[in-house]
Amino acid sequence: MCRHVSDNESLEHRLEELEQQVRVNESVQDYFDKKMREKIDLLKEKIVKLELQLEINQGIN
């Protein structure tokens, strides 16, 4: 016998799918936020090193 899926069951299933997509999207966003922070930190370190090198070079000249 074929089971008729009620509108409510269909909506509940869709809600579960959407909630799963939100969890996945949040995880992806967290990952990229972490990677972006890491890149920003590396760039800040590089800037500090370059500024120090510039100061040294200006002191020599």
Structure in a nutshell:
It contains one helix and no strands. With 61 residues, it is an all-alpha fold.
Write a structural description.
- This protein is mainly α and 61 residues long.
- It is built from one helix and no strands.
- It has one helix at residues 7-60.
- The mean pLDDT is 92.
| Secondary structural class | mainly alpha
Helical content stands at: over 70%
Count of distinct strands: 0
What is the rounded distance between the termini? 91 Å
Overall pLDDT score: 92
The whole-angstrom Rg is 26 Å
Write the layout of secondary structure elements.
Elements: H1 7-60
Descriptive tags:
mainly alpha, 89% helix
